[in-house]
Amino acid sequence: MEDLLSDQLEETKMLMDESIEHLERELVKVRTGKASPAMLHGIKVNYYGAPTPIAQTANVSAADSRTLVIQPFDKSNLQNIEKAIFEANLGVTPQNDGQLIRINIPPLTEERRRQLAKVVKSEGEDAKISIRNARRDAMDSIRKEVKNGYPEDAGKRMEERVQGWTDASIKKIDEIVENKETEVMTL
After folding, report:
1. For the domain 37-104, what is the CATH code?
2. Pairwise CA distance, residues 182 & 116, whole Å
3. What is the CATH number of domain 2-29+109-185?
4. Which side of the chain, N or C, has fewer Cβ within a 10 Å radius?
5. Helix (H) or strand (E) run with residue 23 in it
């Protein structure tokens, strides 16, 4: 019984940590007006018939705060990379000069900044929901084991530990979201 609950608690902690990591990965993709190679992480390029992450087909770098430069490892793949960027609908236009692709990142309008701030909050809420679901599942398991004869005081201690993890995770999510909102709203 003890081992089952220990495994459940470890899984709960792992799920909470994964929720925070997922939030951080998703927020990297949110544009802040600065050129960042991370903006292109989710893009897959048709590379010899297989969808391949852009970072595995080209060198992506920021030339300055408003320009991304994409230099393909294989020049014959320029068209596929350009097409993948268009299809990703990032709101940017790639410029192909035959050797590499440049992407100029336009400054964000106030309205677009507000929209992005809403996206950031929404991602934060999704992460909190995931944390709360993990907590609910852990609490249900603990209560079930207490009904089956597990000591009640030990069950309460485990519930308190799970609640502590939940509180810490939600606080971390709030900090991450607040920092990203500040970054998005800053000119």
Report:
1. 3.30.1360.40
2. 11
3. 1.10.132.20
4. C
5. helix 2-28
